[in-house]
């Protein structure tokens, strides 16, 4: 395999999708603070992983791996891992403890997610919640609670080490090429129509912009280059920062140099941003083209 690194960066638009421990009757959204003094909402990569795996299971594409707590730790069942190699254990890794004094068996994740981080600062918005309907039906006063909220653009990135998919030294697995391709393409398919169920809401995490491809180098090429800026009330994707990456080159061999843009696919939702830069491909079509590149990469001769 010549091209071993898959990377895709997504832009989505949603309300907060992850919460920290609250206090009293206030639910606290996950957030971080920057040196500028601004506060930004985020959703952890663990929460994204949870939603992606759930999506695949709910749609009958994957099955949950079997779990056990025999060693006092909640983990994948090693008895199953000896017989078969479930998709989530393959792509997202594991650590199997074997008891006191015995070395654990570990597999690093080959599919990795960044946090889902907002482009726009949080302004302290809160939503008042009540159980007024139930209270009225009982003829009593309602209970009240507050939840931190906001609405805006977020980005996250997915990367996959294609050369490590389906191979596991701990339990001796090496899946067929066709199964390896299917697992990676299923993962990309989940991101096309992803949602997250949170606090009675179903948040739409389908992409409104994607950029990525399959490369000879493993790198999050676009994660820090994708930015949304506002001109007045209209959002724009900062194409200048993307252009620098797209025009960058890397060396494959002494005789071969690649331009990143030649291997990259972009997709954008029409009418969402102030300028689509002449891109006519939808995010869904762009992801389908990246899936085709995954298949080609597995079939390439060294």
Automatic annotation (TrEMBL):
The keyword Glycosyltransferase does not apply. GO terms for biological process: defense response to virus. Keywords: Antiviral defense. InterPro entries: Cas7/Cst2/DevR_sub_I-B/Tneap, CRISPR-assoc_Cas7/Cst2/DevR. The keyword Isomerase does not apply. CRISPR (clustered regularly interspaced short palindromic repeat) is an adaptive immune system that provides protection against mobile genetic elements (viruses, transposable elements and conjugative plasmids). CRISPR clusters contain spacers, sequences complementary to antecedent mobile elements, and target invading nucleic acids. CRISPR clusters are transcribed and processed into CRISPR RNA (crRNA). This is CRISPR-associated protein Cst2. The lineage of its organism: Bacteria, Pseudomonadati, Candidatus Kryptoniota, Candidatus Kryptonium.
């Amino acid at each position: 395999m010549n091209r071993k690194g898959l990377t895709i960066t997504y832009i989505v638009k949603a309300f907060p999708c992850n919460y920290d421990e609250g206090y009293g009757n206030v639910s606290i959204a996950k957030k971080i603070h920057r040196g500028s003094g601004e506060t930004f909402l985020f959703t952890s990569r663990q929460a994204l992983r949870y939603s992606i795996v759930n999506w695949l299971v709910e749609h009958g594409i994957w099955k949950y791996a079997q779990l056990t707590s025999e060693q006092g730790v909640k983990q994948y069942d090693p008895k199953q891992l000896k017989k078969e190699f479930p998709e989530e254990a393959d792509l997202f890794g594991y650590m199997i403890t074997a008891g006191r004094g015995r070395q654990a068996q570990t597999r690093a994740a080959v599919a990795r997610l960044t946090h889902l981080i907002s482009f726009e600062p949080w302004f302290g918005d809160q939503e008042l919640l009540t159980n007024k309907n139930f209270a009225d039906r009982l003829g009593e006063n309602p209970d009240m609670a507050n939840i931190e909220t906001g609405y805006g653009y977020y980005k996250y990135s997915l990367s996959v080490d294609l050369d490590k998919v389906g191979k596991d030294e701990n339990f001796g697995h090496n899946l067929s090429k066709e199964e390896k391709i299917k697992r990676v393409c299923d993962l990309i398919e989940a991101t096309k129509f992803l949602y997250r169920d949170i606090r009675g809401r179903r948040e739409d995490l389908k992409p409104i912009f994607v950029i990525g491809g399959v490369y000879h180098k493993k790198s999050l090429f676009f994660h820090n280059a994708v930015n949304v800026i506002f001109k007045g009330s209209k959002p724009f994707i900062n194409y200048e920062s993307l252009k620098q990456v797209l025009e960058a080159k890397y060396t494959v061999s002494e005789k071969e140099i690649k331009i990143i843009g030649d291997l990259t696919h972009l997709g954008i939702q029409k009418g969402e941003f102030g300028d689509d830069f002449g891109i006519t491909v939808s995010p869904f079509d762009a992801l389908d083209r990246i899936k085709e590149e995954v298949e080609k990469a597995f079939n390439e001769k060294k």
